[in-house]
Every structure is written in C-alpha cells, then in structure tokens.
Write a structure and sequence with these properties.
single chain, about 35% helix
Length: about 70
C-alpha cells in the first residue's frame, strides 16, 4: 500500500505556513512574558516616629524619665 505524493494546493500551504507562524509568535510571546522578572513585594510601612499631626501623642513608655532616680 504505497501512497503517492501528497498534493496540497498553494492556498492551503500558505494557510498552514501562516498558522504555524502565528503559533510560533504566540509561543515566543508567552515564553518572554513568563520569563519576565516579577516586581518585588511592596515594603511594609516604616514605623512612625514622633508626634502625629492629628493631635494624638504616642503612648509614653513606662519608666522613660526615671533613669538616674533623682
């Protein structure tokens, strides 16, 4: 059972070439996008130092003014 040469029309061949090129471009785009470095996670907010502007003072630390005991 031998098969003769497969005759494909020029239009079908061109469509196959275009489909293969589109699939290749999509694969390359997906690969480039998946290899892109991800941005780092945002840093936590730094602690607030000093007094706030809304009028509330920070809580006093226990024993803060009694270092020398006079």
């Amino acid at each position: 059972m031998t098969m003769g040469p497969l005759h494909v029309s020029a239009r079908t061949r061109n469509r196959l070439i275009v489909a293969a090129a589109v699939a290749l471009a999509g694969g390359v785009a997906w690969l480039v996008r998946s290899k892109r470095p991800q941005p780092p996670a945002p840093a936590p907010a730094p602690p607030r130092i000093g007094y706030s502007r809304n009028g509330s003072a920070p809580a006093p630390v226990a024993g803060a003014g009694a270092e020398n005991g006079r």
